[in-house]
Structures are given as C-alpha cells and as structure tokens.
Amino acid sequence: MTLPYIPNTAADRQAMLAAIGVGSVEELFADIPAEFRIGELGLPPALSEPELVRELSALAGRNRPVDGMPCFLGGGAYRHFIPSVVGEVIGRSEFATAYTPYQPEISQGTLQTIFEFQSMVCELTAMDVANAGMYDGASALAEACLMAAAISGRRRIALLSTVHPHHQAVVRTYAFGRGLAVDVMPPDDLALSEEHACLAVQQPNFFGYFLPDVEALERAVHAAGALFIVSADPISLGLFRPPGEYGADVVVGDGQSLGSPLNFGGPYLGLFACRQQYLRQMPGRIVGRTSDAQGRTGYVLTMQTREQHIRRERATSNICTSQQLVALAATVYLAAMGKLGLRQVAELCYHKAHYAAQRIAQLPGYALAFDGLFFKEFVVRCPSASGGPSELNRALLERCIVGGLDVSQYVENGVLLCVTEMNTRDEIDRLVEALAAIGGGA
Amino acid sequence: MSDGPRQADIGARLTFDLGKPGRTACSLPPCDVPEADLPPPSFLRREINLPELSQVELVRYFVALSRRNYSVDSGFYPLGSCTMKYNPKVHEKLACLPGFTSLHPLQPLATVQGALALMYDLQRWLADITGLDAVSLAPAAGAQGELTGILMIKAYLADRGEEGRSRVLVPDSAHGTNPATAAMGGFEVVTVASDGQGNTDTHALASALDDGVAALMLTLPNTLGLFDPNIGRIAEMLHRKGALLYGDGANLNALLGRARFGDMGFDIVHLNMHKTFSTPHGGGGPGSGPVVVKGYLAPYLPTPVVAKEGEGFVLATPERSIGRVGSFYGHFGVLVRAYAYLRTLGVEGLRQVSDNAVINANYVLARLRQAYHLPYDRRCMHEVVFSGSRQRAKGVRTLDIAKRLIDYGFHPPTVYFPLIVDEALMIEPTETESKEALDAFCDALLAIDREAEEEPQVVKEAPHTAPVGRLDEATAARRPVLRWRREVGSEP
Amino acid sequence: MPSPSDRRYTKEHEWVRVEDNMGTVGITDYAQDQLGDIVYVDLPSVGTQVKQLEKLGEIESVKAVSDLYSPVSGELVEVNQGVNDRPELVNQSPYEEGWLVRVRLADPAELDNLLTAKQYDELIAQAQET
C-alpha cells in the first residue's frame, strides 16, 4: 500500500539505510526492548480517498444538521451568520498549515492577524490589553479566576449562579488544581468577603438576561478588594455597553459566534482582555508591534517570559497551542462586519428575539420566566399540556424545528430559547404556531 | 517570498487604517419583524470602533498577509517535537461537511449518532494504539491534556488518602508545559537529571523517589529524540513506590504501530492530534489533546465520554470524574480530521509512519554529524538533536544558523531546546518529507557551516530575503505596543 | 576590564557599594552581558525587609528570567525608577545609572561574606574557561 503522504519509495529507503550504515529499518528500533515490540493493532484496513469520502459522508449522513431547519437552540453555542470571506481566508493553507509564529521573520502573516485580533477584542470589550486567545469561554473564565487569585493572594473564587453551568464546572476543575475554593452566589444575595479574589458574572447571563444594576455589583466587588470579571457575549457587544466601561478588571467570553460554525461543540475560542496593570499576569500569547533594522514594521510574540516555555513552573499558565485559526476567523468576521455590520447583527438578534418572546408570551399556557432586559435568549415556561420541555422539543423536531434548551432543572418547565439574525420572521411564526398547537392552546 | 517595494511596510497598515467610513464587506437582510424598543441609553454603547472595508479591500489585505507566512504547504518545517507533517487536503473537505459543522452540541443525542459513532471509534483506536484502556477526547490541546492527567492523578491520590504525595518529578529535558502543568495541579516540581546517554538517570530518580512523589512525567522518546531502554525499570520503580507514570505523547510518531505506552507501564498519556495525527497547526491552534488511561483511572476522566448504550451512543459521566475541562466535548472539528487520518493509514499505515519518520531522522543525523556536534552519539528515533557548539567557537550562534536557513528557503528547526543541550538544534523531519527535501535541507546546513567559517557576517545578519529582518524584540518587550490605537496608528 | 574595587560581589553576580551604612545594589557587567537585552526588572516595594543571599526579585531578558539575590540584609529604602522606565540602563550602565535598589544595612559585618573585586574577577575568569 502506497500512502500519498509518504514520498519515500523502497529505493529511497534503501539508499538512506545505506547512508545511515544499517541493513534494515529494524536496527533503528533496537533501543526498544523486545518485550515491548507489538504485532498488529486492531484498526480497520486502510481506505483510499474515494472510499474515505464515502465512509465519512455516511457518518455525516447519520446526523441531523441544524442548518436547513429553523433552530432556536443556544445555551453557549450559537448559530450566527458566517460571511463567506471567513472560510476563504482561513482556508488559505498559508494560514492553516503554518506553525506557531516563533520565527517572526517568516510568520508576519499570522503575527499581524493576531495583533489585529488583540486590537479588535480591546475595542469590543473596552479593555486595555487582550491576548491572542484561549481554548474557549469556559477555560478563559477559569484562567481569569486563577489570575485573580495569583494577583490578590486570596484563595476563594466567587461566581454568580447565573454564569453558564458548564463554565462554572470548568472553573471548579481548574480551581481544584490550585486548591482554591469556589463559592456560587445568587445575584440578590452576594456574600463577598476579603477572602474572595474575584467575582465573575456573565452578561447576558445563562438565561439571556442582563444584570439590572451592574454598577452596584461592581462597587460591591471592588469594595471587597476583589477583581471584577465579566464573561460577555461578543455579539451583544455590538449593541450593549462594554464591560470595560462599567469597571471590569478582566473580560472573557467565547468567540465562536464570531465566524465559527457550531462544529458539535468545538473548536471554539476563548477571548481574554484585562486592564493594563495586570498585563504581566495575563496568561496566553501576546503579540507586539516593533520594527527591524531597516525600519520596517513587524510583529513579534512578546512578553514571553510569562509563558511556560521560559518560566516553566512559575508560568502564568501552562497554555501553549491555543486557537489561532479560530481567532483568525473572528478577526476576518469582525473586519468584514465592521463598525456598521456588528451593530446590525446585534440589533437583528435583539428585535427578532423580542418579537418571538412577545408572541410566545401571548400564547395561553406559556409565560416568560423572567422580567428584565434580554438580548437574544430568554426562558419560557411551557404549559403542562405540552408534556414538559423534553416532550415539547420532541414534538417540535417532528415538525422539523429545533427547539430551545431544556432548563427545567433551574426553572420549572423552563425552555431557553435563542433567536439570532439567522431566524426569519417566517421561522419565528412557525415556531409560535407549533408551540400553540403543542401546548393545546388556540 | 520577498516582493520588493510592493511589500514595503505592509505591517504599518492594519484593517483599521484601510477603508473609509460607510464601507462594509458583507450584507445583512433588513429587519423583518416589528422593532422592539431599544433598551435605555445607559445600557447601550455609544460607538464601536471596528474597521470599515469593502470586501475587495478585505480579501486583498488578508491575501497579502498570507503571502508573508511560511507554512507546511510552502516548505519543510524541521521542528523537533512538533511533528509538522503534511496536512491531507481531503480531511479539510470532510471536516467541512454540514453533517459535521452544523451540529449543535446540545441538540438531542438521537440526532447526532454519526458524530458520536466517530468519537467512539476514535476513542477505541487511540486506546488500541497506546495500549491503554479508556479515553477522553475533551482536552483542547496537549497542555490541557497534561492538566487533565495531572488533575486525575491528584483526584485519584486524594481518594486513597494520599494527598501527602505533593511532588511531581520532571526530567531536565522536559518541555516547559510539563512543570507548568504540575504547578497548575498544585504540585511541587522536582527536576531529575539525565545521564550521559541522554536517558533518565536512574540513580537520580531513585534518590528523588519517595512517598511524597505523586508521579513522574516522561516524554518517550524524549526531547532528545532518544528511546530510554530502561523504561520498564523506571515504571517499576515508580509503581513500587506508589507513584504513577505520566506520559507526554508528543513524540508518538516514532512509536506508531511499533510499541505501546500501556505495555511499558504508563498510567496516563496525553496525545497531540495536531502533531502525530496530521491535523493542521493553524498558526497556533486549534489542536486537540486526548488523554488515554489505564482502566483503574477511567472513573476519573473528564466528563463527558462517549459510551455505547444498546445499539446507540450516549454521553456519560465517569463516576469519579474530575469534571469538565471545556464547555462541551472537545474539538470535534479537529477530531474528524484525526479520524479520517486513521482511516487512511489503517492498520498497515501506522508502521509506515514510524518507519519513515525514524529513517528520515537517522538519515539527517548521518549527513550532518561531520559538521555539527552530536552531543549524544547514538541512534536517534524520529528526531535528532545537534549542538551548534562548533560553530559557536567560530563566533556564529545557533540563532544565526536558524535565521540563515530562512534565506535557503527553510523554516528553522527548534532551537535552544531541550535546555540540557548547549546551542541546541532539534530536527524532526517527519515521514512526509522526501529524501530530496532532506538532502536539500542538509546541503543548506552544510553550506551555512562553511559560511560560518568563510563569511560569518552573512550568517550573523541573516535573514536577508524574508519580508522583514531580525526584529527588535527587546523594545517590543520593554515598551509593549499591543494594539492599534486611533490617534497615531499603533502607539501605546 | 577589572570590576570596580569600591564594592563587594556575590557569586550570583550582584554587587553592593556601601556609604554611611546605605548599600546600593546592582548587577555586574558580566551578568548584564550574559543576560542580553534586559527588558524588565521585578523588584519588591520600599519597606520590604531583605536578607543576604535570599531572592530579591527577578530580572528578565527577552528569552529568559533570572533570579536576583540580595547581597545584604536590611530594609529596602529606595527602588531605581529609572530602571523601571528604561530597563536598558542596566545593560548600558550596570555600575552607575543601572543600580537597582538601596538597602539600609542591618549588619555591616555581613560584607565579609561577600567577594572582593579581585575574587569576583577570578570567579568569572574561571567560568569563562569552561
């Protein structure tokens, strides 16, 4: 079997073995003790390219993609519009097959796009500095909490209960490593003490709502001497006040909404930005602008002494590979949407979600679970006649509609619905009709 | 790659500097629903400062930037411990199928059985390849895989009342992520010396090994590209003392289809999809760092894992799980490519990979050993480490050699790592390079060695043909400029 | 060039020059040369109690971090702001403008534990031979 990805022929190998001075390739593996040498493994036989395409297409065919159906599912992963320029740029193999830009002279493409990304994240969040990206919103939040602990020397992390449950879980995992305690508190019953390194909030929160008085919260956090961490939906920042303007010390979030598909949960993109004074404690890669001896502008990885390859056990984080190509997608997305486009996307989400909420609230048996300001997600209590959220979603799927997230473990009979610029009025009306029928109402 | 005046100072103009107010690169539909009242102004932002470009300008800008990048598709990357092998194009096409990209992680499991089947099979094959029992595909990259493994060790020991095991041993040749990860796990890091053959010094290990040690983190073959024949004994020493053996699987390319971590006594290993398994490096990610473990550690794996239930697949939470390491299930988009790669290699292909990788590295060793000092004079595996010490004596450093290679059309090898080799030059050809490519590379290094003798200045001032010359990294660190600013372009 | 004789040295390449029980501390020319371009110096705040040969702070070049050790014990009374703004001062003038901190000596007898200029020069001569 000749693999297209292994150029050397038997003749090439013969010549090379002769140059090395051995008779067979087996001799090159002599250091491996005989007891560890194995026979054949249990993998299936090799496939040629056409066979591979057939196999994988069949596997893909066993899934029901949400594209092509009205989809109202959010909960931390979102179907937003991806302009075709994004795919064109990240599909260029000069970007996709490049290594981490440790040799800046031949990596200016990657490095300049990272500088662009950092700039855009700062603009979006109204913060001073941003890194080149982290794995996802959840781990970015966790790293922000660890950073707060390192800066303050305090051993407890506080999270609002309305932070996404998966993000809370990841914070706990990371906190376990450093032996930090995690306290989850409801927004109306803050119990911050001088032991808390930070308070983290999500805007809008897991249920889609904004804090009614975030300034009061910020005052309370800073009065306790803790850092104020905000996890923000980047699309919402096209319309809503950025956390840098209301006193955030660190802003994190997930950039999947900025030009990346759902991809069954990954790869996504952690956004991370903070105040200038915390720059040296910030984890992740950072690119800086400089010049060469001839005065040409160039970009380099800078402040590398924070990172694992230099500071080792004293590094700000162990992170090495991050999410560069996904960050590039976000950069192209933001450049393509631009000043006007991002605001437009946010407004479309806002208006469509409010239209949907208003129509659903009028259906007998259905009610909005919360008052307050929401962006693109909201929670609806469904009537018992619907059979509960899971049953409701099953019935919706039969009508080829992907329903919202079952949040009945937090809100009785609750469904978290998401409406973005990708949902047409027609789709929303169809959802409302279906809900009416399933709920046994008019 | 140099393009004369047209490429002059592209770096000075970002998207923010291009375009004009009112331009946009994409179009959105008008609002088709009655507009709701906007929130009060106190909730809204006044302005957002993002670029305003037409699509034409946008595309030309990014295309111009792409031409300033070296990549696997443009040339050889001899980077040790990175396994920069070729990224098959059919994987890109398959990973973009809507049946994969358009799956929401929270949609009903019954509607994503194809995705779960893919993950389940990948779990099985990674276990088989490594000789271990249970797998988590959740970690987002190698470093997160390491963290996952370290936290599992911590949880396992805590369950046994052994929190007193507060130290993790790490060889002096270890990659920086190893000690950084151990510290993130709350462990104290103790370094174990390597011996004169480049193996772990078993006497040093014995001295360091006591009841306070939780684990040893080993890369095998190690970062010198050498296989430690004492691995069986090392595993035994650790287990006898109640400690675990963690494997950094970055160098698996040398062992594919030949030897398995589980057989050698490793308890936990992380793998790198973006190294051994051909997924593209992306300029710095996304990668994927699955963790494979011995059966007794399976209950501690992060949640969720893909499990079989009857005829179908489900997501399951291991009983003593350390919890979530990411929002969802791992980098599915990357895992699709790794799956496709294993289907392409098949059982026959695994050995072809390791055979050719090891032959290629030994060939480079043979061709360069007269000119470059080989600190450990023995057979290497898939990568070889030289020292630029001879050239240093002539006044030319490894850094200069690396930069001069750029003028010859190559990306430099890994330099100044591992730390235990002076002026280190680590070369990993991978199996996807041809003999001709390797000959051209070796010829270049031999030419540079002659230049170091005859005209050192041309080496010390290299690169001469890249889009920019050596950059002022000192000023970049002293007075960081980390973002674009409106007033003066990009001043702090 | 021989190291200045008006001060004492540690094996870790720090120097201290004492006047009226006030010690000015910095790193040697050999050290700055070995470190390369210095990009950042991390020093404790005024008022900190420091101890002889214990870690005082960190000094960073582009690709490395080195620990700084205090040559003397006492109270840190001054930090060189100039070095904060322009770390290159340490490279350019390690014995004068590139000083790092001033310490009020707790015990002048401690100076006997340190190397003289001549002893320090012998130390680095040996290091350069290997």
Q: Can you walk me through this structure?
A:
The complex is a heterotrimer of chains A (442), B (492) and C (130). Chain A has 442 residues and is of the alpha/beta class. Chain A folds into two domains: 68-78 and 339-439, Alpha-Beta Complex (Aspartate Aminotransferase, domain 1), CATH 3.90.1150.10; 85-333, Aspartate Aminotransferase, domain 2 (3-Layer(aba) Sandwich), CATH 3.40.640. In chain A, 36% of the residues lie in helices and 14% in strands. Chain A has helices at residues 10-20, 49-61, 84-90, 93-96, 108-125, 137-152, 165-178, 214-223, 308-311, 324-361, 389-398, 425-438, and strands at residues 129-130, 156-160, 181-185, 196-203, 227-232, 250-254, 270-274, 287-291, 297-301, 367-368, 377-381, 405-406, 414-418. In chain A, the strands form three sheets. Chain A has a seven-stranded mixed beta sheet with strand order 1-7-6-5-4-2-3, with helices on both faces. In chain A, a hairpin with a 7-residue loop joins strand 12 and strand 13 (414-418). The mean pLDDT of chain A is 96. With 492 residues, chain B is of the alpha/beta class. Chain B folds into two domains: 90-344, 3-Layer(aba) Sandwich (Aspartate Aminotransferase, domain 2); 350-476, Aspartate Aminotransferase, domain 1 (Alpha-Beta Complex), CATH 3.90.1150. In chain B, the strands form three sheets. A seven-stranded mixed beta sheet of chain B has the order 1-7-6-5-4-2-3, with helices on both faces. A three-stranded antiparallel beta sheet of chain B has the order 10-12-11, covered by helices on one side. Chain B has a two-stranded antiparallel sheet with strand order 8-9. In chain B, helix 2 (89-95) packs antiparallel against helix 10, helix 5 crosses helix 6 and helix 10 packs across helix 13 (435-454). The radius of gyration of chain B is 25 Å and the shape is globular. Chain C is an alpha+beta fold. Chain C is built from four helices and nine strands. Chain C has helices spanning 29-35, 81-85, 88-92, 117-129; strands at 8-9, 14-19, 22-27, 38-42, 49-50, 55-61, 64-69, 74-79, 101-105. In chain C, the strands form two sheets. A six-stranded antiparallel beta sheet of chain C has the order 1-2-3-9-8-5. A three-stranded antiparallel beta sheet of chain C has the order 4-6-7. Chain C is globular and about 35 Å long. The mean pLDDT of chain C is 94. Chains in contact: A-B, A-C, B-C. The interface between A and B is large, with 204 and 208 residues.
